[in-house]
Amino acid sequence: MDTWSAAVMLFLIMDPLGNLPVFMSVLKSIEPKRRQFILIRELLFALGILFLFLFSGQSVLNFLNVEQETVSIAGGIILFLIALKMIFPSSGNPSGLAVGEEPFLVPLAIPMIAGPSTLAALILLANQAPDRMVDWSIALAASWSISAVILLFSNVFHKILGERGLVAMERLMGMILVMIAIQMLLDGVTKYFMHATGAL
Questions:
Q1: Which of 50, 52, 51, 23 is nearest to 38 (CA)?
Q2: Domain residues for 32?
Q3: What CA–CA distances, in Å, run from 114 to 11, 19, 71?
Q4: pLDDT tens readout for residues 71-95
Q5: DSSP H or E segment with residue 140
Q6: Among 13, 14, 84, 93, which residue is least crowded by beta carbons within 10 Å?
Q7: Which residues in the chain show pLDDT less than 50?
Q8: Contact 123, 157 (CB under 8 A)
């Protein structure tokens, strides 16, 4: 996977367009001047957590003695499940905050931006090619930057796309993510059988 393919994958997993309604719902009861500060703070928290997992995730896998094929297969399954939720979203309020309560780390930074699937994808990238950490850092920074712009100008995107447009975009991104997930899963299975036959 090249740098920009990784950036696209991470952007799709972060799903800023799909998260727009949640962000707007969480922040609507907060003063507009305070709202922008909170959003920037949560985005920076998420970026720090994402980079932490990118650079320390490999050490965790080495400690647990988990092979690359296992991470690839598990990552593919996780991405596939996330993609299904994007295509067939569930109803309900995911914020879990009382009206007027100011979010801190949860739910905007975690799990809306730095969610389990994004963290798993970063660990997967670091595990597949630990010598390309600069490339993965660029990919993460690019995908985070685009997501941040979309979320910071959430009102503009919401007016342009509308509710139906946001739903359509999220489902389209989900379909693309399904293809990435299946390819990741197939790569992991192929490498596993190659190692298994080689060992025999």
A1: 23
A2: 1-90+105-194
A3: 11, 12, 18
A4: 778 778 877 887 788 788 765 544 4
A5: helix 133-152
A6: 93
A7: 93-95
A8: no
